[in-house]
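Annotators were shown the component list below and the corresponding predicted structure, then asked to write short factual statements about the assembly.
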Amino acid sequence: MLTIKNLHASVEGKEILKGINLEIKAGEVHAIMGPNGSGKSTLANILAGKSDYEITEGEVTFLGEDLLELSPEIRSRSGLFLSFQYPVEIPGVPMISFLKASVNEHRKYKGLEPLTAGEFLKLMRSKKDMLHLDTELTNRSVNEGFSGGEKKKNEIFQMAMLEPKLSILDETDSGLDIDALRIVAEGVNALKTADNATIVVTHYQRLLDYIIPDFVHVLHNGRIVKTGGKELAFELEEKGYDWIKNGNEQ
Amino acid sequence: MSIIQEKITQTDQLVSLFEQNREILNQGSSPILNRIREVSIKRFAQAGIPGLKNEDYKYTNLKAAFEKSYRQELVQESGLINLNEVYKSNIPELDAHLVFLVNGWFYSGNKPGSELPKGVVLGSFEQIANEQPELIQNYINRQAGLSNDPFVALNSAFAKDGFFLFVPKGVIIEKPVQIINLLSSEENLRITQRNLVVAEAGSQVKLVVCDQTLTSVSYLVNSVSEVYVGEDAVVDVYTIQNHNNQTNVINSAFYRQQRNSVLNTGTFILHGGLTRNNLKVTFNGDHSEANVNGLSFSDKKQHTDNFIIIEHASPNCLSNQIYKNILDDESTGAFSGRIHVARDAQQTNAFQRNNNVLLSDKARMQTKPQLIIDADDVKCSHGATVGQINEDALFFLRARGIGEKDARMMLMNAFAHEVVQKITIESLRERIDELIEKRLNGEIAAKHELTV
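Structure shown to annotators:
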């Protein structure tokens, strides 16, 4: 589904990613772990199409297409979803009209008719029930005045509405209390099928108690320095990132 | 030196135009107005057309506007109006008491009276000043006469007509009163318009003023409005300007509020050439409230200047100002908001905000919030921002599949919406939302280009 080959990227002349290689197939869950500043969020943002980075080398293929050539909106419509680490507040843009526009753009791309207001509300209700969300979030402006937990739940709700093929969850667990973390993780698991894939970007192992990864990659200093099964996450938790840092330097 | 000479020339030309036409101006006008004329032309001659050295006009240069040659209607000339043209022109259609003015003159075909509550007077300023001087004499020039603005003096010298609205004590006009100011001429035209609104104690009225050009010549509008808001009265005034690029406007509005009164204003500039809005609110009694808002869109070489003064002369009053500008291309804007809290105006609450979005590298905005506080127990705030479209929000929307153009539109609408949602007339709010969408899509500009 997604193939990353020797990806190098820099910001203002400073190289952040120094040769990332990653292969993700349908049905898989990959965790990318690493200390602060290792390049995890940069990788997530580059995949979604944020333009602040300069790609100096390498290639990324998503569903057979050159991902780096696509605009953020086409990436989204093709089935790539980024759950933001810090979802932005957009006062004045009602959640409902934003989401309706988003869903209908995705439908249009697939050659489907836009949903009527009634159909849209029905879809929203069913997704809310599935994720056990309260109705409050959708009656407000996008993320305006939301708590950290509400923002993250709102991201997962958008993911449920858009049914992406590849979801990238960027530090979705940061700042979440355990109850919110459970709701978010259950949502992600409920949306899991054999046809879609998930990348969980996280600093801590805790989220991986709830979303069980097939592969764990450790990112350090712009490179994937270790890849293993879910047990690697436990090992990291036990030994700390110094274990990787020191190991890398030796 | 040449600049000073030009300034003298333009001012002198207007003064001699007055001298030559004094009789025509006085003819058919109320003696009250004619007395004001003489004082005012002297004041104008003394002050002259302000240059950029005048602190109040630092960011708005009207020199070029006054240099053009214009026809001026010293007596009413405009005949019939083509209503088809009017309704093609994006003026909001509302369920309202509707009157037209053409080139600053109250249109003779208006028949507003039949549905208005008893005692309400809506009509030609010139006619009412002649026929019912008792209605105007306590209000005319009470506020404008105190102004140092040379254009206000110029208006008072030449003013003959405009609209007059009188709402007697305790009367509530439920439907909005819609005033449509049409500008229609085949040659460049200078317009002087004088309006007066008197809302007596306990009365309520909502005014919607629509300014519209019907041809593509250059207009120079100098309009003065005085609005008296009596004790316990509630007055709303919304202005929607949709002028061609060649039109220069100086609008001066003076609001005087008696105790316990409420004023809501919204000034929406959708399109125009150069627009200067002077707006002054004076709290003349305690526990009054004024919500003064504005939203303007400009592109190409348009210029918009909102010059606001809130005079807290009485204690326990509340004023809120929110002015927003969206500027594209090489357009420029200025905002000046002066809040003065007098020594005895304790317990004043005065808030002001000016937010601006620049869509291009060449657009410019000057903003000058000013607080002058002579009392010691007050709550005041002011703030101004000038920025671009929020890139993080734009990326977020695009990352959810919304195309860049639509995403930008969504964000601009959101920026504008804060001002729109303060409109107290629901149908107008909806129409303004539609007009803004059209404006942001470039449809309103295209309309103006078609008429060329």
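Statements collected:
1. The mean pLDDT of chain A is 90.
2. The two ends of chain A are 34 Å apart (CA to CA).
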